[in-house]
Amino acid sequence: MSGLPPHLQEDGLTLADFMPGDERKRGEGFRAIRGEALPAGAEWASQIQLIAAIQTVHDPEIPVNLWDLGLLYRLEQLTNGDLEVEMTLTAPGCPVAGEMPVMVAEALAKVPGTGIVTVSLVWEPAWHKGLMSEDARMLLDL
Predict the structure, then answer these.
(1) pLDDT tens digits for the chain (142 residues)?
(2) How far apart are CA 121 and CA 86, in angstroms?
(3) pTM
(4) Are 77 and 115 in contact (CB under 8 A)?
(5) Is 9 helix (H, G, I), strand (E, B) or coil?
(6) Reading across the β-sheet that carries 30-34, which strands appear in turn?
(7) Angle at 57 between CA 52 and CA 60, to 5 degrees
(8) Between β-strands 72-77 and 30-34, what pairing exists: parallel, antiparallel or unpaired?
(9) Residue of 70, 72, 105 whose CA lies nearest to 87
(10) 48, exposed or middle or buried, with CB in 10 Å at 0-12, 13-18, 19+?
(11) Concatenated DSSP letters of 43-71
(12) CA–CA separation, 26 vs 67, rounded Å?
């Protein structure tokens, strides 16, 4: 049995699946997909609810949530209530690269009023400390 978390074992993913420059993934990055389609006429989650869900996900190595770290580049609610998210990591070699998109997708899928959640891991633009919120900078003494 591999040392990967169960949800990664099921998907058959390895760290190589998340690295930039992988020819099989060029231009699309890794995607984590969770949730179910919303029924017609269902009320959608608000942007505030979605951001609050993302703020529950923390990088295990940094005591700051992913939203305040500035790792979320796009959070778009489609016309059917599905969500498309683009996120990055602080570094391509992040030891939890395989877990972070899945954690974000699962947190968002739990919010009532969200349909299918697709979280894509992207590497451009490159993350930098200037993307962090003021709260994150204060927490990290930057």
Answers:
(1) 344 444 444 454 444 554 444 433 434 458 899 999 999 889 999 999 999 999 999 988 888 899 999 999 999 999 999 999 999 998 877 777 778 999 999 999 999 999 999 999 998 899 999 999 998 888 888 7
(2) 6
(3) 0.77
(4) no
(5) helix
(6) 30-34, 117-121, 83-87, 72-77
(7) 155
(8) unpaired
(9) 72
(10) exposed
(11) PPPPHHHHHHHHTT-B-TTSSSBHHHHT-
(12) 25
Are the C-beta atoms of residues 79 and 37 closer than 8 Å to each other? no
| Amino acid found at 3 | G
Rg (alpha carbons) of the chain, rounded to whole number = 15
Q: How far apart are CA 49 and CA 43, in angstroms?
A: 13
